[in-house]
Amino acid sequence: VTGRDHAGRVSETRVDMGAPRPTGNVVLRVPAWHAAIAPATEEVTATTLSMGNPHAVLLVDDVAKAPVLEWGPRIEHDVAFPEGTNVEFIEISSPTVVRGRIWERGVGETMASGTGASAMAVAAHLAGHAGRQVRVELPGGSLHVDWGDDTLWVRGPAVEVYTGSISDAWLEQVSHD
Fold first, then answer.
1. Beta strands 54-59 and 86-94: pairing type?
2. Please, how many CA atoms are within 13 Å of residue 56, restricted to the half-sphere of its CB?
3. In a 10 Å sphere around its CB, with 0-12 CB exposed, 13-18 middle and 19+ buried, how is residue 173 labelled?
4. pTM (2 decimals)?
5. Of the ranges 77-86, 96-105, 159-168, which one carries the lowest mean pLDDT score?
6. Average pLDDT taken over every residue of the chain
7. Distance between CA atoms of 124 and 47, rounded to whole angstroms?
8. Which H helix or E strand runs over 156?
9. Distance (Å, rounded) from C-alpha 39 to C-alpha 58?
10. Given a cut of 70, is residue 160 above it in pLDDT?
11. Using CA atoms, how far apart are residues 112 and 122, in angstroms rounded to an integer?
12. What's the CA gap between 12 and 170, in Å, rounded?
């Protein structure tokens, strides 16, 4: 816990994400982004790595216009990734700021992710566009990534986004099913 609000509730945390494991680059064929004639395709290169789960990171000129909904599911299920993969799209704003969007495997577009932000920062650094300490700006907020010698740390807001309750009767029923 790195921050608390005026009422003492946790407002910021820092998490040890472990050491990233870069696995190289892979060239993928995807539908052409601005094709006038379908079904044109183009080749893109993704930086691949593991943060305990697989990631394929693509550098784009404008992350707001990135074809996340078109390319995300296609790359997630590409034969290069037999178990599927998370797909991140990054735009480098400066050596200390990376803007990104995430296609999370099995989920779809996601507003924020600790492993996704970690993968974005590592890929930006490996490509020579960013340092080892960057702010990753995502639709759901910003995370600060610090890639040290032995591990990678992510620091960011802790925000309650949902509360709910589960009835004992429902739990009883599903435990017998």
1. parallel
2. 28
3. exposed
4. 0.87
5. 159-168
6. 93
7. 9
8. strand 152-157
9. 21
10. yes
11. 16
12. 34
Kindly write down the DSSP assignment for every residue of 51-81, as one continuous string: SSSEEEEEE-S-GGG--HHHHHHHHHT-TT-
Residue-wise pLDDT for 49-82, tens only, equals 999 999 999 999 999 999 999 999 999 999 999 9
Residue 129: the pLDDT is 97
Q: Is the pLDDT of residue 38 over 60?
A: no
Tell me phi and psi for residue 82, to 5 degrees.
-60, -25
The token pair that represents 5 in the structure block = 């609000």
Give the angle subtended at the CA of 118 by the CAs of 71 and 53, to the nearest 5°. 65
Distance CA 96, CA 39 (A): 38
Give CA–CA dist 123/59, Å, rounded: 9
Query: Which amino acid would we find at residue 8?
Result: G
CA 11 to chain centre: 21
Q: Give the CA dihedral 50, 56, 57, 58, nearest 10 degrees.
A: 160
Radius of gyration of the chain (CA): 18
Residue 133 pairs in a beta bridge with: 146
